Amino acid sequence: MTQTLAMWSKLAGLPGGKRLFSAAVSLRAPYFRTVLPAVRELRPGHCAVTAPKWWGVRNHIGTFHAIAACNLAEIAMGMLAEATVPDTHRWLPKGMTVAYVAKAETSLRAVAELPEIPEFGDAGFELPVPVTVSDKHGKPVVTATITIWVTRKKGQ
């Protein structure tokens, strides 16, 4: 179990634990604070994160800004990677493809999910992580694939 997953397991069942975990995520990566993320589910190969529609993420037409939605997708991918990639390895974002498929007029939920958890060996590899960002009615508004580069840590 990774350190991140161990912390999630420890906190998620406690009153206010998910909120505390989400705050810790925002402290570790301060830029993510802009979308006020709340981690809802976390396990190897899966993460769900929500973000409210507040004035700080609205664009000129009053919808959830496209780049703010991308930030939410990146948070979901990052938490999935932290829960999935073993502590003997590291990961780095390598690229992101995004499709804006509908107006984001409500709060959002991003779900990152791997179809299959890969083997983590000695060779570095690219791992595409699909993410779907949906509105509060479950309608997809953004789809993304964020590719990460996974390698064994030096000395591991």
TrEMBL record:
SUPFAM superfamilies: Thioesterase/thiol ester dehydrase-isomerase. It comes from the Bacteria. Signal peptide: none annotated. This is DUF4442 domain-containing protein. It comes from Amycolatopsis acidiphila. The lineage of its organism: Bacteria, Bacillati, Actinomycetota, Actinomycetes, Pseudonocardiales.
